[in-house]
Structures are given as C-alpha cells and as structure tokens.
Design a protein that fits this description.
The chain has about 110 residues and is mostly helical. The protein has a domain of about 40 residues: lambda repressor-like DNA-binding domains (434 Repressor (Amino-terminal Domain), Orthogonal Bundle). Helix content is about 45%, strand content about 0%. It contains 5 helices and no strands. The longest helix is centred in the first third of the chain and has 20 residues. The protein is globular, with a radius of gyration of 16 Å. The N and C termini lie far apart (about 45 Å). The relative contact order is 0.16.
C-alpha cells in the first residue's frame, strides 16, 4: 500500500500556514540555544530565572519551547545575560521570492 506524502520545507511554521513563519522559526531556534546554554551551565530553573531577571514560570515556558511572550529582542537580552555575544548580519537577498529569510546560528 503506497502512502502519499508531501515533503516539507525547512520551516515547520511555514508548512503549517502560521503567520510570520520566519520570525517564529528564529524565535524557536533562539529558545533552543538559550535552553542549551542553561543546560551546559548546569543551571536550575530558579538560578536561570535570577540570571535572566524573570520568574521561574517564564523559564519553564522557555524549557517547553513556548514562543508567545518572548520577542526576539527579549531573547537577545537573555543571551546577553548568559554571557553570549550576538552578531546580526544583514545581506541582500538575491532570490526572487517574497519570503523573508532569518537564519540563526550558534557557534
């Protein structure tokens, strides 16, 4: 029995028809990085909350990957509080598509 399927793009939010899929993917990637750093530093949720100047439920929301309530700017401030530098690189998009491209990399 053959199953039909459609290959997805690299952005699940776009595939699901979400509004602002590029921004949502960037936020998800930033949250993943923040969680990774918190884990690498061996911080409890309470310790992370103190460093990020938020209450513990916000850390729990981050750990669960919740995007709402966190702007990209706020996520940048969390990364700075975790002693991370942020570089923003802007270059012209030579593709002839209407899609905006936002890429997040952690080195």
């Amino acid at each position: 029995m053959k199953q039909d399927y459609t290959d997805g793009s690299e952005n699940i939010f776009k595939d699901l028809g979400s509004a602002n899929p590029e921004e949502k993917l960037a936020k998800a990637e930033l949250i993943f990085i923040i969680n990774k750093i918190i884990s690498e530093k061996g911080l409890s949720q309470k310790e992370a909350a103190k460093i990020l100047n938020v209450d513990q439920p916000k850390i729990s929301a981050l750990k669960c990957g919740k995007l709402s309530g966190f702007s990209i700017e706020r996520l940048f401030s969390f990364l700075n509080a975790l002693d991370q530098s942020i570089d923003v690189v802007v270059h012209q998009n030579h593709q002839k598509s209407e899609a905006r491209n936002i890429h997040v990399a952690y080195t």
